[in-house]
Write a structure and sequence with these properties.
The complex is a heterodimer of chains A (266) and B (86). Chain A is α/β, with parallel strands linked by helices and 266 residues long. Helices cover 41% and strands 16% of the residues of chain A. The relative contact order of chain B is 0.12. By secondary structure, chain B is an alpha+beta fold. The chains are: A alpha/beta (266), B alpha+beta (86). Bound molecules: adenosine-5'-triphosphate (ATP) and magnesium ion.
């Protein structure tokens, strides 16, 4: 059975696409799926860093498309997760070096050998976005619970529909449970009601995301991280499991929950 | 935010965010600004008045939505007809 091409995109930049791509890929691979990630953010490559594979790049996406190397040569295998591969973006070219047709052809090839092809899209509504969604079977829109990110998400959801790649699903990233509780952050329900699309998962704001990015080890591999658990749940939902959302109130771990019980809050 | 504010419930910025987004998204999705909607309403009143007697002040034109589908909803009360029916 050919694999699934899942494109991870957003309207606003910096909302967590690369983080989500790396972690969903790692979570899928650790469940035994064969996964290849494609960094489509040409000129601003980052997925290699987040995955900790930056030192092993020889060829990139543009080299493949322009025929300077074979597809296999551009694929970097993760040493921790032998089922996980990366095709890095070119750093010194721009988005016009690749066309939507190139992406479709490349993904048709990758689909034959991999269960999942995850595409890390650049932000925005330009060529890079069109490249990233052209081969998609499924589209995941990442946003934050914040006014401009939600507005831009709505715009991109409309464009995905117009390109007949919908319905997109939502990943709400960086939700801060304490802020939601005090009424100063949009809740997942609010965002879903506004955007009127299905939710794939909610990832809490979590320092461990920054720490793991520093180290180049995806947080999804960290058994103690809340965000890691959220990404693992998302991977399970992609595999068709019915996994309930993790409760907001649980966000602090046992000690903090006890603290709250005694009126300290967090 | 302190517990006093919380009790008063007057600092709920999430509520404001949601209300503001609700309005802005409706217009983003249709590419219709509030100003254009006003102009549309004026022209509609003008056209309809050529055929039936209406009360311009009572006319309501709104964008509404169901899921991601947008609708233009017009509420145009007619004046009771003065011509006697025989
Ligand atoms: N759940 C989270 N908790 C804390 N920090 C996060 C979380 N998700 C992402 N971040 C941080 O936010 C920053 C932006 O994330 P990331 O690079 O994944 O966004 P992006 O959407 O790929 O950005 P770009 O549009 O520039 O490609 C990073 O520093 C990342 O570590
Ligand atoms: Mg990125």
């Amino acid at each position: 059975m050919p694999g699934t091409v899942l494109t991870i995109t957003s309207g606003k930049g910096g909302v967590g696409k690369t983080t989500a791509t790396a972690n969903i890929a790692a979570a899928l691979a650790s469940r035994g799926e064969k996964v290849v990630c494609l960094d489509a953010d040409i000129g601003l490559r980052n997925l290699d860093l987040v995955l900790g594979l930056e030192n092993r790049i020889v060829y990139d996406l543009v080299d493949v498309v322009e025929g300077r190397c074979r597809l296999r040569q551009a694929m970097i295998r993760d040493k921790r997760l032998p089922n996980l591969f990366l095709i890095p973006a070119a750093q010194t070219r721009d988005k016009t070096a690749v066309s939507p047709t190139d992406m479709v052809q490349l993904c048709n090839e990758l689909r034959q050998d991999y269960d999942w092809v995850l595409i890390d899209s650049p932000a925005g509504i330009e060529r890079g976005f069109r490249n990233a969604i052209a081969p998609a079977d499924q589209v995941l829109v990442v946003t934050n619970p914040e006014v401009s990110a939600v507005r831009d998400a709505d715009r991109i959801i409309g464009l995905i529909e117009a390109e007949e790649k919908g319905p997109a699903r939502l990943l709400l990233n960086r939700l801060n449970p304490a802020l939601v509780r005090e009424g100063n952050m949009l809740d997942a329900e609010d965002v879903l009601e506004l955007l009127a699309i299905d939710l794939l998962g909610v990832v809490p704001e979590d320092e461990s995301v920054v720490v793991s990015a520093n180290r180049g080890t995806p947080v999804a591999l960290d058994a103690n991280s809340r965000a890691g658990l959220a990404f693992r749940n998302i991977a399970r939902r992609l595999l068709g499991e019915d996994v309930p959302l993790m409760p907001l109130e649980d966000s602090g771990g046992l000690l903090q929950r006890l603290g709250r019980l005694f009126g300290k809050g967090d | 935010m302190g517990w006093l504010d919380r009790l008063r419930g007057n600092k709920n910025s999430a509520r404001q965010a949601k209300d503001r987004l609700q309005l802005v998204l409706v217009h983003d999705r249709t590419d219709l600004s509030p100003g254009q909607l006003g102009a549309l309403k004026d022209e509609l009143i003008e056209v309809i008045s050529r055929y039936v007697d209406i009360e311009p002040q009572a006319v309501e034109i709104q964008l509404s939505q169901s899921g991601r589908e947008q609708y233009l909803v017009a509420n145009i009360p007619l004046r009771p007809t003065r011509r006697a029916r025989r």
